[in-house]
Amino acid sequence: MNRKKIEDITSQILTEFNSNELPIPIKKIAERLGIKIHTYDLGDNISGVLVINQDQGFIGINPKEPSVRQRFTMAHELGHFLLHKNSSDSIFIDKEYKVLFRDQKSATGENKREQEANAFAASILMPRKLLIEQIQNHFLDLTDEVVVKQLAKMFDVSVIAMTIRISNLSLF
Predict the structure, then answer these.
(1) How far apart, in whole angstroms, are the C-alpha atoms of residue 93 and residue 115?
(2) Which CATH architecture has domain 3-126?
(3) Domain ranges in the chain?
(4) If you compute the radius of gyration of the chain from its CA atoms, what whole number of angstroms results?
(5) Can you give the pTM of this predicted structure?
(6) 76 within 8 A of 106, measured Cβ to Cβ
(7) pLDDT in tens, 73-110
C-alpha cells in the first residue's frame, strides 16, 4: 500500500472521529474502533503486541517504554490491525490467533508491513494538515532543533519521529 493511501485512511479516521486536537488522542481513537488496549510487561525488546482473534483486536503496550514510544506503538499496532488483519503471512498461534509483535526489527522498517504500520502511526499521530498548520501559524524554522523539539512535544511524539515525519513530508 502506498503512503498516499495510508494518509487518506488516517485522514478519514481523524475526520470521522473529529480528532483535530493536539496531541491526537490515539488511545481513544483505537478504543472507539473497538480495539482493546492493555499494558503488559513484554520484556526489554518488545514494545507492543497485536493479537487478532476473529476480527477483534487486542493491543498490548509495554509500560516500561517512554510515553511517546507507547503512543507510537499503539498507533503502529492499530495500523497493523486496519491494514493487515486479513494478511496470511502473520505469525499464528493455534489457528484462532494472529500475533504481531513490535520489537527492535519493527523500528527499522525492514519489511513492507512494518514500513506501512510505521507510516500509518506517523500519519495519524502527526497529521500532515495539522503539522503544516502549526508550522505556518507559528512561522517555524524547521532547521532549528529547538523548533523540532517543540513540535514533538506539541504532538506528543519523539523528536526522531517528528524529524522523520517532517523529512518524509519534504517540509525541510
Answers:
(1) 24
(2) Orthogonal Bundle (1.10)
(3) 3-126
(4) 16
(5) 0.87
(6) yes
(7) 999 999 999 998 876 544 433 334 445 555 555 555 45
